[in-house]
Amino acid sequence: MHTRTLAQLVQDLRARRVSATELTQHFLGRIERFAPALNAFVTVTAEQALAQAATADRRLAAGDAPPLAGVPIAHKDIFCTAGVKTSCGSKMLDNFVAPYDATVVERLAAAGAVMLGKTNMDEFAMGSSSETSYYGPVKNPWDHSLVPGGSSGGSAAAVAARLAPAATGTDTGGSIRQPAALSGITGLKPTYGRVSRYGMIAFASSLDHGGVLAQTAEDCALVLEAMAGFDARDSTSLDEPVPPYGKLVNERWDGVTIGVPESFFDDGLEPGTAAAVRAALEDLAKAGAKLKSVELPNMHMSVPAYYVVAPAEASSNLSRYDGIRFGYRSPNADGEDLLTFYMRSRGEGFGAEVKRRILTGTYVLSAGYFDAYYLKAQRVRKLIADDFARAFRECDIVAGPTVPSPAFRIGDKTDDPVQMYLNDIYTIGADLAGLPAISVPCGLVRGLPVGLHLVSPPLTETKLLKTAHYYQRATDWHTRVPAAAEYAR
Amino acid sequence: MSWEIVVGLEIHAQLATKSKIFSGASTQYGAAPNSQASLVDLGYPGVLPVLNGDCVAMAVKFGLATGCTIARRSVFARKNYFYPDLPKGYQISQYELPIVHGGRVEIVLDDGSTKTVRITRAHLEEDAGKSLHEDFAGMSGIDLNRAGTGLLEIVSEPDLRGAAEAGAYMRKIHALVRYLEICDGNMQEGSFRCDANVSVRRVGEAKLGIRAELKNLNSFRFVEKAIEIEAARQIEIIEGGGKVRQETRLYDPDRDETRPMRSKEEANDYRYFPDPDLLPVVIDDALIAGIESTLPELPDEKRARFTEQYGLSAYDAGVLTAQRTLAEYFELVAVKTRAAPKVAANWVMGELTAALNRDGLEIGAARVAAPALAGLLDKIEGGTISGKIAKEVFEALWAGEGTVEEIIAKRGLVQISDSSAIDAFVDQVIAANPAQVEQFRAGKQQVLGFLVGQVMKASKGKANPQQVNEALRKRLPMR
Questions:
Q1: Residue A365: which of B45, B273, B278 has the nearest Cβ?
Q2: What tens digit of pLDDT does each residue of B258-279 get?
Q3: Which of A102, A236, A338 sits opposite B46 (nearest CB)?
Q4: By residue range, what is the domain housing residue A181?
Q5: Residue B417 pLDDT more than 80?
Q6: ipTM of the complex
Q7: Residue A424 lies inside a defined structural domain of this protein
Q8: How much is the pLDDT for A260?
Q9: Stretch B449-455: mean pLDDT
């Protein structure tokens, strides 16, 4: 049952081959069995899930079921869920029970999806390995000594181990696509503003994208269709109609021109990954895509620009965690002055990576440095967006590797932030430019999955998903399941 | 050696919108603490600000009324600092690109001349909450009802010379925002308050002196007093050979002094940057034209019209147009009554204002409506009652005793114009005051007033004073 794709499960539920309750119980059973070792979940909401499933069953029986009725999903613990702890992977919010639902949560619930629980993640989504969580590192289902990628590592591990057919994620510098690639699943980050940020705990507002991790591009299309759309509560959300992605991905694919930046295949790219991605591009060409060499001359500046803009916004976004109205308050600050109160509560509530970024962000925004760092980084951001726009005059999609190499060992890069940051070198550009992008499994290197990365112009999710879907109809990499803990059985 | 005091004001006018600038919570004053703070105002994780379009319209209205340039594109920025009554750890404000800039207003000085004061800019921002340090032994209370209320911060150039000009400017802006109905102007509730930048220099000096910023002045009187005290302090320092420090100071009205704020409260690097949660505010010609068409007649225009149309003095017109509602009240009376506009003006500025002040009421809550006052003035004009009796009728009207006619009838206040009745009173008074009669006849003119008064008293104020005067002169020809 758990190896069925989300699209197949939708059909199974409609045809009453399986009930929502059975399906939910099945996945809850798998979560109970496998999730602890993977450390994929922060909270499992079994009771609530079964209640939602019962409702879905009633509606399926009555014949008025919404599109995802009875489909179990998991939410990254960055999305606020009414009455359920929303930790954002941080000690700071370990005691925080959100009083409201994020728009994404609300919309998926309205579409009939059943929430299984909240997935583990890098603290405040700051990380590329899911090691910075207050709740400990998430393990890669392909090899428990490896990281699953991050920050949406819990969501990626859950889908990879088939503990949920799909899970929501967020992507600020690659946090959906990088873990999708390292965990052997499909991860979609839509256009900036396509999915409302309301209720999605902010890391870097101008870069934060809500998205989805699932087995296939078709599954991503179905979930995106339910979660996307204008939201008056988010001023940056796009007031554009939501196409029926789930239906459109199955329409005829007429082939596309795929631009390949040769600079992506330099020494920084691990040879096995390079070979897998080259092979995938050849497969696409055989299927009818035209390959073309393009240039993104400013991409080498994307990581430094990102590590100015993202921490700058984060330093301000995280100021609200002061221990006064909600969240962690130091027990060691009683009777101390205000400054001590702040320093202890924030000093004890935040982990090292979060502090590093708050310090970086505070520095780049401070008087005398603002122009040299923040403004310059914003100019670089513009150059990168212009690079993509220029490339898209010659091609429909820019393709390359998602991550420079397969999953690395837990603890390997924790002492070297720059090495960690370079894991996002291929994904950050699409965040800086706000472009839709997807990672699809395209091979195994020494038994570990690697991803093909596709980027397209704003609001062309349909074309992007169709291309990925077409690739997945021609290949079977996305059906590979890690053997490590016999997840397939 | 004479000194010049140089002042620039930053006025914070709370915008009179129903809901807050970035959330749907009510802005109503005086609710139970924290009962009007939404998740957005509380800075909860995941929530986002959404701009209230009414705030934009009000800022544009102010800009148009002061000849400002309306920015086609303005940007909200975050001003970052930590304080318990600032829930997000930053205040959303406008920094580099304010919504309006480069305007001016005219103020009238004590000598009657006018002066132009330049407005540097006015920008939109959100208010913070309140910290309550009393009533919580050893702790502070936080009330976030005010957090997120829209403010228009109006910044002037350092064009003001001394406390009186600063006071006149502040009153002018106060009148203007109330005219435009963008701020209720209630200073007790903090809806209208200001910071003053004060420096001094020797007369003739071109360079500005080092300034101190006086924070949170919430009455016209405090602004004037604080500036005087602060200027005196700076002059004393310089004359004593010292140097003024650039700093933020607080005015203490109880001790009538200014003193520096603790350095921790001011040593902030606010790290302004554009707020990524909000789009730039884009204003097009159609929006401006739409707002322009709703602009009321402004105080200066109204004042000029009042002097011309009603023949009022500049002073009277100034008093009557200081508040839009007062001006409207006056105009309603002046149009309806047969009495001269000057009489209407005197009554509005005299009896009516006195009664309002006595009962602590706003003009909108006046207990004598404009048509009733116009009717009352008609009775004087028509000779039915005297001006003095009219004051009695006015008080009765105020007390709700009925219409003008009813009160006059009920109290029997109709003026006595029957000459035989008046002659009877006159005879009575002449008989009762032989000494005064003798003085008058001997040429002491002033005594006539006394005799008239006695007749009025005898008639219980109802005799027509003009006729009494004539009757007395006729009966007592001077020798």
A1: B273
A2: 999 865 544 579 999 999 999 9
A3: A102
A4: 6-252+465-479
A5: no
A6: 0.96
A7: no
A8: 98
A9: 88
Would you state the pLDDT for residue B222?
95
Q: Is A151 a catalytic residue?
A: yes
Q: Is A175 part of the annotated catalytic residue set? A: yes
Task: Find chain A residues with C-beta within 8 A of B45's C-beta.
Answer: 80, 86, 88, 93, 96, 98, 201-202, 320, 326
Judged by DSSP in three states, B413 sits in coil
Q: Is A439 a catalytic residue?
A: no
Buried b / exposed e along A231-266 (16+ C-beta atoms within 10 A)? bebbbbbbeeebbebbebbeeebeebebbbbeebbe
Domain with CATH 1.10.10.410 in chain B: 419-475
Give, as one character, the DSSP assignment of residue B322.
S
Q: Choosing from A90, A130, A151, A302, which is the catalytic residue?
A: A151
Give the residue on B whose Cα is nearest the Cα of A101.
Answer: B46
Amino acid at A346: R
Convert the pLDDT of each residue in A209-258 to its tens digit: 999 999 999 999 999 999 999 999 999 999 999 999 999 999 998 889 99
Is position A276 within any domain? no
Q: What is the pTM of this model?
A: 0.90
- Radius of gyration over alpha carbons of chain A, in Å? 21
> Model confidence at A483, in pLDDT bands (50, 70, 90)?
confident
- Cβ of B142 within 8 Å of Cβ of A324? The answer is yes
| Residue B437: closest CA among B400, B472, B394 | B472
SS3 of B423, please?
helix
Domain count, chain A: 1
Residues in Cβ contact with B33 at an 8 Å cutoff, skipping those fewer than 6 apart: B132, B141, B143, B145
Q: Which residues from A are below 8 Å from B265, CB to CB?
A: none
Whole-number pLDDT of residue B1: 65
DSSP state of A123: G
Give A-chain residues touching B51 at CB under 8 angstroms.
Answer: 235
pLDDT value, residue B58:
98
- Interface-testing mutation among A239, A317, A375, with chain B (most B C-beta atoms within 10 A): A317
Mean pLDDT of the A119-126 span? 98
Tally the residues of chain B: 479
CA distances from B467 to B376, B378, B454 (A): 21, 19, 14
**In this structure, CATH architecture of domain B419-475:** Orthogonal Bundle (1.10)
The number of CA neighbours under 13 Å toward the Cβ of B89 is: 19
- Chain A's closest residue to B51, CA to CA, is A235
The residue ranking higher by pLDDT, B72 or B450, is B72
Size of interface A-B (CB pairs under 8 A): 99
Which pair of structure tokens corresponds to residue B201?
A: 């220099």
- Inside any domain, residue A231: yes
- CATH assignment of the domain containing A185: 3.90.1300.10
Chain B neighbors of A320, CB-CB under 8 A: 43-45, 87-89
pLDDT, mean of residues A109-129: 98
With tokens 């020798």, the residue in question is: B479
Q: Which residue has the higher pLDDT, A483 or A230?
A: A230
Please measure the distance between the N-terminal and C-terminal CA atoms of chain A and give it in whole angstroms.
10
With CA atoms as reference, report the closest residue to B94 among B173, B15, B25, B150.
B150
